[in-house]
Structures are given as C-alpha cells and as structure tokens.
Amino acid sequence: MKTFISTPIYYVNDVPHIGHAYTTFIADMLKKYQVLNGNDVFFLTGTDEHGQKIEQSAKSKSKTPKQYADEISEKFKNLWDMFGIDYDYFIRTTDENHKIAVQKAFERMYQKGDIYKGEYEGHYCVSCESFFTQMQTINGKCPDCGKDTSLLKEESYFFALSKYQDKLLEWYDLNPECILPLHKKNEVIKFVQNGLNDLSITRTGFKWGIDLPENFNDRHHVMYVWLDALLNYVSALGYGGQEERMDFWKNATHIVGKDILRFHAIYWPAFLMSLGLELPKHIYVHGWWTRDGVKMSKSIGNVIHPKDVSDAYGVDVLRYFLMREVPFGQDGDFSQKALVDRINSDLSNDLGNLLNRLVGMSEKYFDKKISSKMTTKFYQKELDEIQIILEKLPLLMEQIHINRYVEELWKLFSLANGLIAKYEPWNLMKENKIDQTQGFLGLIANILAKGSLFLYPIMPRTAEDIATCLHVNISSDSFVHLVSNHQLLEDFVIKKIEPLFPKVENFKMAEVDFLKPPQEDTQKPISIDDFSKLDIRVGTILQASKIQKSDKLLKLQIDLGENKPRQILSGISKSYTPEELVGSQVCVLVNLKPAKMMGEISEGMILASKDEEGLSLLRVEKAKKNGSKVS
Ligand code: MSP
Question: What's the rounded Cα separation, in Å, for the pair 401 and 328?
C-alpha cells in the first residue's frame, strides 16, 4: 500500500530544537514501522520560508530573506541527515514548483467560487502568523503565544471557510480516527461548532511571500503564509505540475504539534475540499516539550539543542527518551536527570544487560553458536507469552500510543530477563542439560530478534546493532518471517558487539544556561503572587572555582546569612574569572529546586542579565546584609 507521512515544515527563523526533533522522530518512526510492514511510504519534511516573521528575522540579521532561509534550511536538513531521518523529499516553500502549485491552487479555489476580495480588519500575530478578532485576543495579546498583536486594516482576498463548517463537522463525525488523540479532536469540533469566519488568505504591506497568479493583476498582495505552507503537502507530490506522486495522497498522515492543530484540522481540510482532493486519513497531534514548565523557544532562550543531547548520549537515546517519557499528545518536561535515569534503568539494565548476558552465555557454553531447534520442545509456554505481547504492539502503534508501545515492548525484554533468573541456565549447564540450555538461549535470542524488529522504528541504530549481533536483517521479509508467520531464527553464530548502553555515572552535558532572561513581550503577564513565589536574596561569594570538563560552569560557595554557605553552580565562566568574583555581593534565587550538574549539587541560581556581549551579574547598589530579601 502507498502511504504518505509528513512533518510540519519548519520555520526558518529558528534553529532546530528538541520540539522540532520530536515531531521529526515521530514521523520517521511511523515511516520505519510502515516500511517494515511492507508499505511503500513517501515521507515528506522541509522548511517554511515565507511570511512576515521570516522577513523581519532576516532583516534583523541584515540578510535577505532568501539568504537567511538558505542558511537555516540547510541546518535542518543537515541535522535530519545526521540523525538518519529517512525522509524521501525535503521541500522548501521557496522552490519554484511549490510556488507554481500554490498559484494553481489559488486559481482553482477562485474558480470554484471560494475566494473573494474584501477588507480585513482585525489583529495579527506575526509570531504565529495568525489572525484574531479583538474578542479573541487577551488585551490585544495573542491568545496562543502571549505576544503583542498588531492591528491590521488592509485589502485582502478571503477564503470562504464558513461555507465548509458543516462539511468539516461531517468529516470529523464520519472518520473517528481522523484526529488523534481524541480529546484534541473534540477541541477542534467545539471550535468549529462555535462558527467559522472566512479566512483572509492574502496580505499586503510586506513582500516576502508567493505572488498571486499574474492574471489577478494584484502585485501588492502576497499569499498568506499558512495557505502557502499547507499546500506543501501536495506540491511535493507534483500537484499543479506532473502530479507524478499524487497516488501517495490517498493515505496521508500528518504529524503536528498542538499549536498548529487548528491550521491542519480546519483550514487544511477545507482547502482540500475546495480543491476536490482527498482529506488526510490521520492528523496525529503531539504536546509540547517544555523546560522547567515553559515551552521551548528561541525568544525565551530555554532551548535544548538536539545535537547537544545526541553528541552526549547518542541519537537513539534521545529518540527513546522523547518517545517513552510522555504519552503522545501530552506535554513533557525535558530534564537531563530523567534522561540519564532512563539510560541506566531501561536501556542499560533491561536491554543492554540482556544482550550482554546472551552473548556471554552463548560464548561460554556454545562457542557463540545458537540453535533454536530445542526451543519449541522445552519453552512453548514462553513462546506463547511472547506472542501475546507482540500482538498488542501493532494496534498501539496504529493508535499512536507510542509510550505504551515502548512500555509493552520492554515487557518483552523484562520477560527475558525474568526467564534467565527463573531458569538459571548456568545451573542447567551444571546439570548437563545441554538441550535445555541450547533451547533456552535460542528462546532469548529469538525474543531479542523479534524485539529488535519492533524496536527499529524507535531506536533504529540500536536495533541494527542487536540484529547484527544475532545475524538478522531488519527488513520486511524478516518481519513476515519472525512476526507475522511466528517463525524462529534457527541456527546462527553470535557476532560479538560492543556492550550497549554502559551505565552513566555523571551528566555528560553541561546543564544549559539556567540564566534565561524572561523577555517581557514573550510571556503572559503574571500576578504579584506569582512574583512573590520567588525568594531572591543577597549573598556574598566566598569561594569560586572552575569545574573540570565544563567551559561554562563555575562552582561558587555563597554566604546567604544561613548557618553554612550554599554551593551554587552557575554558567558564567565565559564572562567572569573565579578570582574577580570572590567577595562580590550578588542576587540569588534561593528557593529553586536543587539540581545536580556534572556530578555536583547546585542549590540556587545567581541572577544575571545577558545580551550578545555576554553576561552581567545583578548586584545591589549599596552593600546589604547577607540574606537580605530582594523584592
Ligand atoms: N511552519 C509552521 C508549520 C507549517 S506546516 C504546513 C510551524 N513551524 S514551527 O517551526 O514553528 O513548528 C514546527 C513544529 O514543531 C510544530 O509541530 C510545533 O508544534 C513543533 N514544535 C515547536 N516547538 C515545540 C516544542 N517546544 N515542543 C514540541 N513541539 C514543538 O509551526
């Protein structure tokens, strides 16, 4: 079967972060799973390069929008290549064939009677590239991101979205799984039931967008960036041109974050209906990755760079963590501690150890030669148990319960570890039960072989390593043989590989800047009660020293008027030497949860301001007693 899977196309005003990597990993996982299941998959990703936001970002860097887009688009592409993302096509909305497709679509919608000219009057959020009525804003701020909106009054072409309200409701109704998780679908239904306004689909007042088709003779209009962007899904398949890949469109799945659900679940199906194209089969909606509870974004400065994580721990660990840690659809908070805990328990103890034990025993008892000939005779009950677990996995994947899929898969590995403890193969050998031991190792090897096929979409490199060790191919043929047909791997020689996932004793990544200056215009207003939760006090730095292996962190001992000084780690090493800090009074957030970094505990955070020239510590104007409150 031909299927289509897409990520959203990424705005080029931001370098890739964990949130982008998450969306891409999920799409890549689906592709890998479907390919194993014998489907012919077209996996699309790319970059969204037009619009006012990009034009402004480029200007602030003194670049042309195209130069700027070229640079950032390349960063996304390189990262996905480095991560082994199996995309089939990387689209850029500045591609010529995409522009033509968008103009063709505009004309077709116009001919259908769905586009008319009028005047838009209302609010616009440049950051979300989204229109709002006065009522929808929160005191003039964007209800989605909290930033200031601008008031627009300009000539515009409109798409008759209101015409599609009932058809959309019918689509949601007739297709129970078109939007998953279901609570997200229900949000969309409510929104549509409340009534849809027609949508402004052209903008004037800036240039960086696709022109209207020439025959409209309206050179000062450019296409609304979301109309342009959404059409990437079909322009990449040849829509408006040769249509050479449009047959993939019959089975389309989009992966999107919750912030862009409205665009995908309302505007996009309405555009498709207008164009007479089929609607997507699934829109899978995930939550946000936050840092200390705040959505990651460049403007807030709390971004975790996926490459930093993969350099420190490996890309498979990052994939595993993101997919295992939170239920799909919910928000998750990224923490290095949680990631290291996962490595040490799930990956090292459960999986790495299991493979090591199999390799060790096969070497010790059978010169690495494994046979499963005796497995069915002695271990049929266990084989049945394995089958029960394996049979649960496809449905979990189809319903995008990814963390449960991983949990269930891990039951397989735990089962194998439990069986080793139960059957104690070393005692079987002592008792000279050679056939039973052979059969047992054949059982464990088969658990790992079958498990590696299901692991592949989640951790492709690890699955390949296990498969190499067991002489299995990760392929749809193996899937048919070992999974669909319930066969066993029979005689093979184990190939020794490096142990998987040694335990991690110390954090490998310096904890990135705790010093993230909240930027007024990027956050929703807080109340005085919120502010009073922060306990900020004056303290004197008694000692300061560098931390080995970290070029950012300094270790400080600070007198805060308590019975002993506190140890605080601070990412200020690039701006201050230890010597110049000793004796200084600084402001310290003292009621921050203690955190461990580079094996050292930190009990608070010193405050500093940051710009492109570096950091500057916040100090009191006149000396104050240590422990004095800052308010
Ligand atoms: N360009 C639009 C999408 C157009 S698709 C026709 C866009 N781009 S984006 O770069 O801002 O976001 C792309 C995807 O990354 C979205 O699915 C978004 O939800 C996801 N993430 C961005 N930040 C995120 C987190 N902090 N956490 C999880 N995913 C988030 O929107």
Answer: 6
